[in-house]
Design goal:
By secondary structure, the chain is of the alpha/beta class. The chain folds into two domains: 206 residues, Rossmann fold (3-Layer(aba) Sandwich), CATH 3.40.50.720; 31 residues, no CATH class. Helix 1 crosses helix 8 and helix 3 packs parallel to helix 4. It starts with 8 loop residues before the first strand and ends in an 8-residue tail after the last strand. The model has no long low-confidence stretch (mean pLDDT 93). Belongs to the short-chain dehydrogenases/reductases (SDR) family.
Amino acid sequence: MSNRFDDKVVIITGAGSGLGQASALQIAKEGGRLTLVDLNQEGLEETKNRILEEVPEADILLVTADVSKEENVKNYVEQTVQQYGRIDGFFNNAGIEGKQNLTENYGSEEFDKVVSINLNGVFYGMKYVLAVMKKQGSGSVVNTASVGGIRGVGNQSGYAATKHGVVGLTRNSGIEYGQYGISIKAIAPGAIMTPMVEGSLKQMDPDNWEEVGKQFVEPNPMKRFGKPEEVGYLVAFLLSDQANFINAAVIPIDGGQSYKY
């Protein structure tokens, strides 16, 4: 196993499940010291236990936080610096899908909720982590966007708007911070079978969601859902020194979905 993250400190938000959990496991296998952040304490404990089963010597700090609250974000950054002295990588991943509805019927409160987590939370994370990385003169950030951030997604106004915003923040900040030795990029996952995607399918048809899932991936050139660990491999690469010259870029991981017309 590669040790690309020996002596490296990585923060992962949304680490209690899905892409965050898979990425945490991969980076721990490669020697990384981790701050795992999530609103769900039980999910954090599950992720920690999964990692320790495979990497008993893993160094893990758990921080419960609501990323929509700036003080919570500032706290997980400060706790990381206090514990480890630096931040080498940041997987800025926490997010929600929100409810599905036509734009005219999309609730204003729901829209605000999705924005506060998916966009404000990403911005707050970048704000405080980049300040630390700038002082160090090094670091790597990976933001979670979506195919919904590079094309439309019907019935998901809040989600699509925020993921387009994540793409904008990524490109803009990459231009700003490249001169300080920091690379910033975003991933744009397609249909990856995570708890969030399962919840989306259940919104469509609670009693027949697995069949809906089969129909959902039929237009995909690869005819299947992606696996969280496949995203974890990509995130680990992008946060490693091997990807330092990839900056202000958005990388789809979607089986070709983004390119099929």
